[in-house]
């Protein structure tokens, strides 16, 4: 098991009421999980809470193995950094004052780029990469950090937004492969329900402050249909 | 770019800067021929010649060099923390804040007061420094509430307008003598600094550069967004504060002794990034320092070439603004 959440309450602090309440679930190793729900249902907030970026309003998150790394949506492709330099900036807390990383960290960076098939782009300026290539670069950045701490949970907020159809399926396949071959688990949110539900082992859906967990792939479609009323025909088709 | 090319580019910039400094010290300004200047440079020739070269020209050129370094370091940092290619201390209102307090000091010291001109100048410089800190504190306070870099930039511009408006009100009620003293500072000039002033300015700015170096990898990661930085384990607020403190010291130091000088801060980081083909803050630092200094020394040379010397603050603007328009037209080196 990588992570477990117990009676989790999420939201931004202050006077606002929690976005979702009483969520309990566990994340085993090697699982690719789709997180779905309408805009504002709390997908990003849940991811930020799981990654430790914002504290939970209640309940408990226990990390059993490795670390959780989140790739936020819309990282800018700043001109003037090679792909390898970009990945190295993500090692802020592990690098020296001048930004140098150790030998094992560098090896993990190189092997992560190789795993995602982007080694040949290591010296290219990131502003010239396609959106799909850059997204894989971001995944390599997270993977290399997780390798340094022995695996963990990778969280991606809308990894396929702004991608064309081909890059979209490439990125989804890459995520699935990571789960199978690296033993890490992935939670990703997406609005491309049709494509992403195919690659997912499990679906977590958020609606009206509640969470539904598909537990296994058989219930994936009915879970998606629970979150989106316009998807109910899918569930009927699946039943037939 | 290969390591060899980087070294070559930086050496070329250093040679260019050295040539500009030499031209400035030997040729520029009236009253001394090339040969006289040359012998005065090595401590020979007439006393008048040595006084001109070592007492007037050398401090002026050193002030320009230091100002260039400070402004380029501040501009580079501000562009990173606001993620905006047009950010610099002048645009963010830091110079206007310094100008406002300098004006307050000029008015506050009565013209009849028994005070030497040097002391009077130094108190204006001190007030300008406090003004720079004051406007930076305003920006830091706003940073807690305003998350978007663009909005923060507009906030800075608005603060600058308010400070300028207050300054105008003060000018309106000032005596003729105070006005003259204020204007000689406010038009931006590298002349008239004593060696003591220069050492003080140098110390402040070295501290500013040190803060930049400590913060360089933070400035790199912050370009990729606050969330990405936090995931990498960076304390975004701390990076911003250190950076603003560094900018405040550097800009405050320069503005206090040379007056408000704009545009060097915007332009030099772009040129440095463009020349080296990288945005890594550690790598562009030497180039940014050299480019900033070269622009200031060049502006000094140009301003001394007119029949009556014009303030270099204006010359810098004349060189800088076309470049900024070029950046605005979409050729910026940042995104």
What is the number of helices of chain A? 8
Give the integer mean of the pLDDT values of chain A. 88
Name of the CATH homologous superfamily of chain B: ABC transporter involved in vitamin B12 uptake, BtuC
Which regions of chain B are unreliable across 5 or more consecutive residues at pLDDT < 50?
none
Notes on the structure:
Chain A has 240 residues and is an alpha/beta fold. Chain A has one domain: P-loop containing nucleotide triphosphate hydrolases (Rossmann fold), CATH 3.40.50.300. In chain A, 37% of the residues lie in helices and 22% in strands. In chain A, a hairpin with a 2-residue loop joins strand 8 and strand 9. In chain A, helix 4 runs parallel beside helix 5 and helix 7 runs antiparallel to helix 8. The radius of gyration of chain A is 18 Å and the shape is globular. The model of chain A has no long low-confidence stretch (mean pLDDT 88). Chain B is mainly α and 335 residues long. Chain B has one domain: Orthogonal Bundle (ABC transporter involved in vitamin B12 uptake, BtuC), CATH 1.10.3470. Chain B is built from 13 helices and no strands. The two termini of chain B are 19 Å apart.
């Amino acid at each position: 098991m990588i992570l477990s959440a117990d009676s989790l309450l999420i939201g931004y602090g202050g006077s606002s009421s929690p976005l979702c309440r009483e969520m309990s679930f566990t994340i085993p190793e090697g699982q690719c999980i789709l997180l779905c729900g309408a805009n504002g249902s709390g997908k990003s907030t849940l991811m930020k809470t799981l990654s430790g970026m914002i504290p939970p309003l209640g309940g408990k998150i226990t990390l059993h193995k490795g670390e959780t790394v989140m790739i936020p949506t819309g990282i800018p492709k700043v001109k003037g950094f090679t792909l390898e330099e970009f990945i190295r900036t993500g090692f802020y807390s592990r690098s020296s004052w001048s930004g140098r990383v150790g030998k094992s960290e560098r090896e993990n960076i190189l092997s992560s780029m190789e795993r995602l098939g982007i080694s040949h782009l290591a010296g290219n300026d990131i502003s010239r990469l396609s959106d799909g290539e850059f997204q894989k670069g971001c995944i390599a950045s997270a993977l290399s950090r997780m390798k340094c701490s022995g695996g963990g949970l990778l969280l991606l907020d809308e990894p396929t937004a702004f991608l064309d159809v081909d890059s979209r399926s490439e990125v989804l396949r890459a995520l699935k492969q990571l789960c199978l071959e690296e033993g890490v688990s992935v939670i990703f949110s997406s609005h491309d329900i049709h494509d992403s539900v195919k690659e997912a082992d499990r679906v977590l859906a958020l609606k009206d402050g509640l969470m539904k967990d598909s537990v296994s792939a058989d219930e994936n479609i009915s879970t998606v249909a629970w979150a989106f009323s316009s998807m109910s025909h899918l569930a009927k088709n699946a039943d037939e | 770019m290969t390591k060899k090319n980087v070294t070559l580019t930086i050496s070329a910039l250093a040679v260019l800067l050295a040539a500009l400094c030499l031209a400035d010290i030997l040729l520029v300004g009236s009253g001394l021929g090339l040969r006289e200047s040359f012998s005065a440079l090595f401590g020979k020739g007439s006393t008048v010649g040595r006084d001109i070269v070592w007492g007037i020209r050398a401090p002026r050129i050193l002030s320009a060099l230091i100002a260039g370094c400070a402004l380029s370091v501040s501009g580079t940092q501000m562009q990173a923390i606001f993620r905006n290619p047009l950010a610099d201390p002048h645009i963010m209102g830091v110079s206007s804040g310094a100008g406002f307090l300098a004006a307050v000091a000029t008015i506050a010291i009565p013209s009849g007061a028994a005070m030497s001109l040097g002391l009077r100048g130094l108190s204006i410089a001190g007030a300008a420094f406090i003004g720079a800190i004051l406007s930076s504190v305003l920006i830091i306070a706003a940073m807690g509430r305003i998350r978007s870099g663009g909005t923060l930039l507009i906030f800075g511009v608005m603060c600058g307008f308010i400070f300028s408006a207050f300054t105008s009100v003060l000018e309106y009620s000032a005596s003729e003598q105070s006005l003259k003293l204020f204007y000689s500072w406010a038009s931006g000039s590298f002349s008239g600094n004593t060696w003591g002033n220069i050492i003080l300015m140098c110390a402040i700015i070295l501290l500013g550069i040190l803060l930049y170096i400590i913060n360089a990898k933070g400035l790199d990661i912050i370009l990729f967004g606050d969330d990405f930085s936090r995931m990498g384990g960076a304390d975004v607020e701390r990076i911003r504060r250190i950076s603003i403190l560094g900018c405040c010291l550097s800009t405050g130091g320069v503005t206090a002794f040379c007056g408000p000088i704009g545009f060097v801060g915007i332009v030099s980081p772009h040129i440095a990034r463009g020349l080296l083909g990288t945005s890594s803050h550690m790598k562009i630092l030497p180039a940014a320092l050299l480019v900033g200094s070269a622009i200031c020394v060049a502006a000094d040379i140009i301003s001394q070439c007119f029949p009556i010397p014009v303030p270099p603050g204006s010359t810098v603007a004349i060189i800088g603004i076309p470049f900024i328009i070029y950046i605005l037209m979409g050729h910026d080196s940042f995104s």
